[in-house]
TrEMBL record:
SUPFAM superfamilies: Sigma2 domain of RNA polymerase sigma factors, Sigma3 and sigma4 domains of RNA polymerase sigma factors. InterPro entries: RNA_pol_sigma-70-like, RNA_pol_sigma-70_dom, RNA_pol_sigma70_r2, RNA_pol_sigma70_r4_t2, RNA_pol_sigma_r2, RNA_pol_sigma_r3/r4-like, WH-like_DNA-bd_sf. NCBIfam families: sigma70-ECF. Keywords: Sigma factor, Transcription, Transcription regulation. It comes from Algoriphagus boseongensis. GO terms for biological process: DNA-templated transcription initiation. Residues 17-73 form the RNA polymerase sigma-70 region domain. PANTHER family: RNA POLYMERASE ECF-TYPE SIGMA FACTO (PTHR43133), RNA POLYMERASE SIGMA FACTOR RFAY-RELATED (PTHR43133:SF25). Residues 110-159 form the RNA polymerase sigma factor 70 region 4 type domain. GO terms for molecular function: DNA binding; sigma factor activity. Signal peptide: none annotated. Belongs to the sigma-70 factor family. ECF subfamily. This is RNA polymerase sigma-70 factor (ECF subfamily).
Length: 170
């Protein structure tokens, strides 16, 4: 499919995306933005589209994934948009004061928990934490790769139990 044919097909399908975008966003302006983002991503990734497959389904998938990514980004930022006319950000980071005390407690407890691990678990875990791949750890420690994966898994499980006090409750 040529670029011109692909562009024509995208343009033809763009209006059929609006109901789905409205269902996701529940706002006409956000829906239009989502459609625009979807079209831009589809056009820039046209080489990833397999000719002969369902273009409309591909666009719906891009739209859904774009919406999810944008939603997760908004949640991570931790801001809430005031929907009044002036559109202020309620929890703007410019007015927050950071206190690193809790981070120090967390890191100290994490280091202490790691130190308490048996060397059989601590060594592969720390190597993986420092960026070594599983096969590199297996080669260096001269143990099977399955054993490396198992020991790292057990180390994570033990650390999760040791640091349970930091688990967020919803």
């Amino acid at each position: 499919m040529t670029t011109l044919e692909f562009s024509y097909s995208l343009n033809k399908l763009s209006s059929s995306l609006k109901p789905f975008a409205l269902k996701l966003t529940r706002d006409i302006d956000d829906a239009n933005d989502l459609i625009q983002d979807t079209m831009v991503k589809a056009f820039t990734n046209k080489d990833k589209f397999t000719e002969g497959t369902n273009l409309k389904a591909w666009l719906y998938t891009i739209m859904k994934n774009t919406f999810i990514t944008n939603y997760q980004r908004m949640v991570r930022r931790g801001t809430f948009v005031d929907t009044t006319d002036n559109l202020h950000y309620i929890n703007s980071s410019s007015v927050q004061i950071e206190n690193g005390v809790f981070e120090n407690f967390t890191m100290d407890d994490a280091h202490e928990a790691i130190e308490k691990l048996d060397d059989a678990y601590k060594t592969p875990f720390m190597m993986h934490y420092r960026g070594f791949k599983y096969h590199e750890i297996a080669d260096r420690l001269q143990i099977p790769i399955g054993t490396v994966k198992n020991r790292i898994h057990i180390a994570r499980k033990l650390l999760k139990e040791a640091l349970m006090v930091y688990q967020h409750k919803n």
